[in-house]
Amino acid sequence: MNTIGCNEFLNQLGDWMENNRSADARAHVIRCGDCRSLVADLTAIQESAPSLALDDPEPSPRVWLAVRAQLEQEGLIHDGRRAPAPASTGWFDAIFAMIPRPALAAAYLAALIAVGAALVAPGSGYFQRTSSGSARWLSRTENATGPLSAQLNSAEQDTFSSFKTADPTVAASLQKNLAIVDNYIALCEKSVREDPQDEDARDYLYDAYQQKADLLAQMSDRGDIGQ
Amino acid sequence: MAEPEAIRLAQQGDAAAFERLYQLHSRRVYSLCLRMVGNTAEAEDLTQEAFLQLFRKIATFRGESAFSTWLHRLAVNVVLMKLRKKSGKETSLEQVTEGDEEAGTPRRDFGAVDIELTGSIDRVNLQRAVEQLPPGYRSVFVLHDVQGYEHNEIAEIMGCSIGNSKSQLHKARMRLRDLLHEAVRAKAREERRAAGSASGGEV
Predict the structure, then answer these.
(1) What is the Cα A129 distance to its own chain's centre?
(2) Count of CB contacts below 8 A, A vs B?
(3) CATH number of B1-89
(4) Which residue among A44, A52, A60 places its CB closest to the CB of B123?
(5) Do A74 and B51 count as a contact with CB atoms less than 8 A apart?
């Protein structure tokens, strides 16, 4: 027996999908092909939805770096173990608000990954926390970062020589941010020299180089756009 | 470090505790943002903003609601604010969640639907369809059907009633059905066209 029509069933459809199913609604679905098809479709959508979450990616590391830098700038974080934050970390927000999201230049990225691996990979050797261990860590770190630093300086010169943009405000902002990142690198290098065995300090140095490479890639992109 | 301990230490400004809370929740918040805006760069910016707001306010968290619910509420508000700015409209949160009522009203429109979706929904099609939903529907659908929140939690996150959450979800699914059928029909048309041009080419 069918006691309700399609319109009435549609009014109950929300409840049906919540598993609140009246006898009348059940009877209607058995009898009505259209409503049965509708229920099947909505069920298929409901059952497929969780699959969207299966391959959810992680946000890139730059998100946490930016959050942390901002919190440090605002004085909300205290941690004596950390290397000093950039003097004005607001550059990160400003830069991303102003220009398109950059793709980190492949060459820089490859170099940075190599350096990061050299600095932090377990296979790179573990030295006891001694003065000779410190010397060996410092030597290893400098050997790894020296070529990278030179490459970044060279890239910086190339970028500046070809950097053209229609907007002088953007150019000035990028150059100011580059100076901030350079200052950050100098502070991180100082921290590593003071305690070459401090993993946090080495991580921060690696992050600082990555930020500079990122910024140069952005400037390069912006220069291309401006030409 | 367990979440309650991380919250307590973060309220005292402990950097490691902030990082722990970020590790625990960033993926889910990023996922929500990504489903809402469909763009990784924007989703990352929104994730960043949501966590900044969270950490700025963490000293005020008293544990009346679940921490993740509180965080998601912040994230949803950040996303909706962004979408509102994008659309250039100054509208209230209620308007965003209630918006586009007519388009989502269940329709007695069986005639146009001749194929069942069962077995034909893949993730790409579904994601495309979700991106076409109005923001309010999209939020509730993502929170409930994708991320598994209950209506009472969504009501708290969205600042609406439980009934409103249920209603928005139902309308979202109805709209998705239309969009997915449209996609299936478009694909069928494309295949017929391709088959036609291929057979024409052989003659």
Answers:
(1) 32
(2) 135
(3) 1.10.1740.10
(4) A52
(5) no
